[in-house]
Protein 1
Amino acid sequence: MSGFSVARAVLAKDLLLDFRTRDRLGHMAVFALLVVALLSIVLPASRAERLAWSPALLWVVLLFTSVLGLSRSFQSETEGGALALLVQAPVDRGWVFLGKACANALALIGVELWAGVLFAVFLDVDWSAAWPAALGAGVLGALGLAALGTLLSAMSVAVRFREFLLPVLLFPLVLPVLVLASRITGEALAERAVPALWWAAFVLYDWVFALIGYFVFDYVLED
Amino acid sequence: MRPRRWRRGPFLRELREGALSAVELREVDKDYGPVRALDAVSLSVQTGTLVWLAGANGAGKSTLLRVLGSLTRPTRGFVTLFGVDPFSGGGASVRGRVGFLGQDASLYGELSIAENLRFCARLRGAGAAELERVAAELELAPVLDQRVRTLSQGYRRRAGLARALLGSPELLLLDEPWNGLDVESAERLTRLLVRLRDAGGSVIVAAHAASGPLPRFDRTLRLDAGRLHADGVAA
């Protein structure tokens, strides 16, 4: 079986499980709604000030929301012992990682779109001119978060305090994603050109963590 | 630290000379923190053998099966399945020759049995015809479209067994396979294991004596506190 077929099978299975249970996506969506609603109350009323804060706040909201989803990324595997099914499969486990990371990235992109709508409604952020670059930052940010988050989620799957351990490991490592994504979003909202170097750094970061996950996942899955 | 007795040279020479067996373990230890679950276990299982892995609770039966199923890397020692180290780069190919059923069914509760088996069949390179054959053999047809979490323990066990049989494994590792099965299903499983052995497959079953209608095993391995104590023909 080719690696792509393995990744596609794992991706399709994870999407079906997300669709069936809905709790992971539902929890992320409600959490994002609550936080953005709170932000709309506590932030200054001035539109210029809200606009200045929005890129950083958007990505902090997305980071916290993503932790909520990523920590449940292996829940379906641990509940029925299905992790053994993946570990024992006669496939390159790196492709299993890529399939799961893609499923997480798609879920995060969905949450990003939802958060974009919430920021437009509650904080009056106008995406009309900024959406192409913001969408690019969103996709790259989701890929980076998913690559790193899937790996760390797998590493913390057998740990008692995994809800605590995942953010502790994830936040420092994901800092470049947070900085690049919020800077690009800020430049896009200010209708300024985004330096090509930022995009290159973003792609490089995602690529490096996808590669690390691909090669390390084999060892992470075993006891 | 206890001195090691194995030497790699003779082991590799035996492999080169064609003395291949389904399972070879040499001085395998498995530690979970300070607890030694397996202690210097050496074992060889030829193809076409039905093996009973006996022992009290906590003796290390499940750990040994997990090591053989490539789910747990041993702390020390050598493991080969069909002459290949399952924890090496070539491990993926040999995992396809091994079916594993642990104490859980290892299925997704929110997917139906059919969806679970289709997913496993894709990963294990099994076709639709094989999936149907295995499902028919374990009489899963009435519940194929039901979600696993809604099923009884017995059906879950049978579905887990069907999953383990996908890909026509040459080595089957079963941990308490009779648990939760009714008498008829347990007897059917016993007949299935004998048939697999007669067809040249190797089957290692971890079970208590009172687990179910045990077949006549070719060998009995007894584990006690992680050490392999007895190795002989079952009475």
Protein 2
Amino acid sequence: MKKFLPLALLLLGVAIVVRSLVPERNKTEFDLVGFSRLPVVVNGRVKPLDTVARTSLVILQSSQTAIAPDGTKLTPNEWLLDVLFRSQRADAYQHFEINHPEVLALLGVTTADGRDKKRFSFRQIEPKMDALQKQVGLARDIQSALRTPYQKAVLQLYSNLGLYIRLKASLVAPDHRDFLEELMTFQTNVVTGVAAVRAQQAKQPHDEKLAAQMLESAGRFDRLGELAYLLAVPPAGGEANVDGWKNIGRSLLDSFQTQRVDASLLVYAGLARTWRADQPKEFNELLSRYLAILEKGFPTTLKKDAAEARFNAAQPFYTATILYVLAFFVAVGSWLVWPVELGRVAHWLIGLAWLLATVGIATRVWLGGYAPVTNLYSSALFVAWVAAAFCIVMEKIFRNGIASVAATLIGVPSLIIAHHLSLDGDTLEMMKAVLDSNFWLSTHVICVTAGYGATFLAGALGLIYIARGLLTSSLDKPTADSLARMIYGIVCFATLFSLVGTILGGIWADQSWGRFWGWDPKENGALMIVIWNAILLHARWGGMAKARGLATLAVFGNVITAWSWFGVNLLGVGLHSYGFTENGALWLAAFAASQVLVIAIAYLVPFAKWRSFRETAVK
Amino acid sequence: MNDQVRQVRDFFVSLKLTVVLLAFSILLVFLSTLDQVHLGIWGIQEKWYRSFIVIHDTGSARLPVYPGGYLIGGLLMINLIAAHLYRLKFEWRKAGIQLIHGGVIVLLVGELITGILQEDFQMTIVEGGSRSYSESFRDYEVAVIDVTDPKHDDVVAIPDSLFSRGGEIQHAKLPFKVVPQFYFPNSIAQPRAQVPNAPPVAANQGAIAPRYVVTEQAIDYSQNGRNVPAALVALVATEGTLGTWLLRPEVPVLRRDENGQPQLSADTAAPERLTYGGRTYELSLRLVRAYHPFSIRLLKVTHDKYVGTEDPKNFSSRIEIKTPGGKDDREVLIYMNNPLRYGGYTFFQHQMEAARGLTGLQVVSNPGWLLPYVACIMMTFGLLGQFGISLWSFIKKRRAKTAAPKPAAT
């Protein structure tokens, strides 16, 4: 048992990882895997349709699982295919998440009408579009910081509706009966048609019907060009020409000049026809031919897209979260029974989770082309990663399970935070102007984020010290001493990273804005972490803080770091402020209160009354 | 050494003082961050950091609420330096600590130098245009320019700080004294016709005074706030006063927009002219200018966006830099994160209106710009060294400990 159970736990962890890495297979006769890898450009980045499907679903309904009205579960790509090619059906899918009761009332629906009591279909919303638009008009005039939750919910829903409508018009005209036929007719007529229009403009005799048809087409294409969300038509210049991607409307407008419809448009229209007619063989045939053509001009893009789609499906950070949870229980278990065996398994599990996170982060770096930390989402991933790296090394030295527990105490919440941040859409964003500098992203940002991770780690160790010392009798003198030493050591690293990172930030600011330090809220937040760590170190050197003092100071470091990480964004001022909701403010306040409560308890209960120290005193 | 002196010394070198001051400073940073919701960044700097005592204006009273940045920072410096002098025994073991604290001192001294000596200017150029001077963002000067010689201007500039103090100003190049009557750091100007019960015309010369009523305004400290000053100046020669002029850098102008609606906009005020002793002078209140011994011509501005979005990818200005002697004549590309350092100034890409072919360069002269780099290197090596030594001795101790029981067991 002592040997078998730890081994079984480790094998369970490995099995979870292996299962997540198995490539996706087609569930139906349609080659959805191939389809999911088709490249398009959204928000300035070339990405596979798979990413479009997942991020759109997450934006619309905060979940990647779509469910058809008849209860069948759809993969993100099946859902996307229906939205793109069979929008009549997709209009009935309940994928608009609406939580605000007054918005529901506005739309004339109740929670009972929605899937999971909160998700509604386009068809359910459409009848009240005018009423919604009126509310949108009212809400838009109000400064974003002053909007009520209702107004925000109205605008959010409206923006989601916009996304859905634009998505529907991305590969074919959404109101078409047979877009392929329309394109073929256009292709046949374009040469004579353009001539007819020119003749009309020159007041020469011409085919009036044809000219009218051409002008009508031009109007339709122009509207499509305004509407279509995806830049799905690859440029002639191949991979180097990222700026050459076009949406279908713009490409069609160009075809008046080139006098030929781009092949990819015909492919998409053909895919639409075969998808609607339920002809998997023809669908797959067309798809594989198109992929073969793309393979010539866009080999790297296709390789990256395939990797990205697999990365999306594997969800390495989700798997890592599960491993951390498992490791937490194993490591805490090691404090009660079989310290060596369980401790080792916990160490291995964390190593496994960390490895997975490393591969995940490295993949993101490769796909995005930027340093690991570019936004709040990736900073949350990195905080978890840094803390785990420290813990793996510390556990190797101390072998007492403490560092393993600490790793999970930071890993799980950080990854959950990351998950919630990912609900805003694609997390691989292009960096805007001044931030577009891999040198500074990989020095300043990495150092500062590593500083967050290390400071949180010291805080987690502080929490473990207080919890074990106060509530259990398991914190004997050597363990308590080594725990205090671990806190001190990690604070040293935290100081190093946050100090160097903060100064590097100043130097970056000097390089791009002409001033080293501007007392911007984010700069102030970073400075507060540096000062707090300095306080900790000086208090220890001056003998003002012993073990308990160090632990409680480290716990308060959690509050300061959380403030610096998220809190300053709440102020809505300064150069670094990026979107963050009231919901976040509430969580932040609750977190700060919980940490202060722990500190208060640690001081209100006299040290000699702590369970661990009471018993040693008796002994 | 008597007890009192010893007490004072012990107070100033103690680590307790360090911790208390650091605690005060962290709270200072936090409170000033919160205050940014109400007050712009310039206001914050004046109120919280460039002060000994933070004065909070409740509207009805001005209350001292907190020790300011100068006080806390100054005490920290004294504490740091005193502690190092007192324990001045160089040991290799403590080299890291010395280096870290040396870095802190360099950093703070650098910031002090920056605070005192840094000069910020802007240079706005249109494509094809050329400039040989930069303008301040906020500071104004009264300029008296002898324009008699069409080939050559003789400029006497009086900074607003000197002007606002009042008193007569005499300059060797001017045959008259400049006597400030009043100086408003911020003001509004309204067309006289629109102001009922307008006060009498303040000045007896110039074009602005008869047409506009100029009223003093409170200084706007907010981030994007603009202050437009106004000055009343008298010129006094040996034989008596030559007149008084009302000066303002800009005047309001009523225009009709494309829909025919009247819109109020501001125009740069034309300089006032006067002739005295056979020479012609121009008189104006303008942003402080820094003349450069070189000129910058804007060749092209570029505003790149990511495809299919309005997200900016990069802003860049291609410029040509030229010295009169022809020593330098070359093209340079200035873009985000890549400023041009030339002639003691650094030129940053600051603003851009690509549609109008307009670029705004920020021009900074900061003799202390290298010090943060030095501090960063010192502190990095100091921290690495110090913690490295601790880590090494810890691991060695631990190895000895884990190795020790083994022989006993076998």
